[in-house]
Input
Amino acid sequence: MRLLFTAAELAPLVRVGGLAEAAGGLVAALRRGGVDVTVVIPDYGDVVLGNESRRSLNVPSWAGPMTVRSGIHPVAGEVTLLGNQALARSHPYVDPTGIAWSDNDKRFLAFSAGIAALRDDLAPDVVHLNDWHTAAATALGGSSVPTVLTIHTLAYQGVSPASWMSRLTHDAAAFEWYEQTNPLAGGITLSDRVVAVSPNYSREILQDESGMGLHELLRAKGPALVGILNGIDTDEWNPEADPHIVTPYSSDTIELRRECRRALLDLAGWEDSKAPVIGVVSRLVDQKGIDLLIAAIPFLDNMPARLLVLGSGLPEPTAALRSAAAANPSRVHFTDGYDLALAHRIFAGADLFAMPSRFEPCGLAQMQAMRYGSIPIVSPVGGLVDTVVDADASRLGTGFIAKSVTTAGLVDAVHRAVRAFKSPRRRAAIQRRGMAQDWSWDDPAKQHIDLYHDLTP
Output
């Protein structure tokens, strides 16, 4: 099986969100499963490759000139980078102020043209595209190769001026969207299979309220739309061998976790009381329900519980968290930014872990939290439902699911989680069940390989 796999991000080379982690984890697992993967991302200009080769790529004049850099990355293995120097940017999507680059439409449509040119040159068995940044490749170039498109989130569709349809070489009508160009809509229509990143999300996006305007296109795919749950890198997220935490531990030695908890308390400047610590590692954006979390802070005193947040994003929730931490430093601690080592320490040291997302196609943090014995509190959406079993509804519970995506629903779930935390025996049982789950990429990779084979009889 020869696969051309392409995305805007790839861990650990280019990391912005879950797309990078999913792409990197799946590629590595596919290679372990015997798939010959050519993985392609944009050349953002700062990736050093060993044994590097360069060549020019024949793309339309509006997309070029384009250079192909191929070589070996010490972690990601063989990688191919597509670069147009005039379109290179320091961040994949936004400028230093957080505003989207004004030419993102040209940058990623040019990238799609490069993907199509590589596909025509390499003639792989299957092409695997990810999100809108790559979707226009389905209407560019000349060859016909079975195509899989993974939707990591419908929220970003790459809607661009209508003039871009004139650059597409075929099937441009599939991209027409209310007198504009919609790369994701066209990619959904033209791909042979569409993959949503969790089974529950694949059902949610068929509904008017969750389909972000694309529900009818997705319904039309019928059985060609499937849900495959993402995994996590279980080597990186492994409390038994994590260099970022003070003490390694396992489900058999879970009592050692208290040393990680104590280190997290020291970081926050908190005393080692019985009040549980609720950890959060998140982007501070509307999707993640951070406003619901902020509204729940006044209820922490009566539980009692403490909140420790690591995240960056929109100015309003950032300012609100700063204000909450300043007003109540014994109850709320906030770190603005993203620190990978600190994220590991939060998963290892927090008693509970909150994800009040409004929508969550798959979610990775809840799996990482369970891997470390931090009990998740999640919204009833997307992949959170596929991965967390409510401990008040099942003896096999691994966390707590809010009954609604509201502050009241979140507060109720936190109350129930705090109650469970106060029972050492019940707490340890929930923790061990979560830690016993297999969140590796092995099974998702097998499902993808089966899907590829279905397309190549």
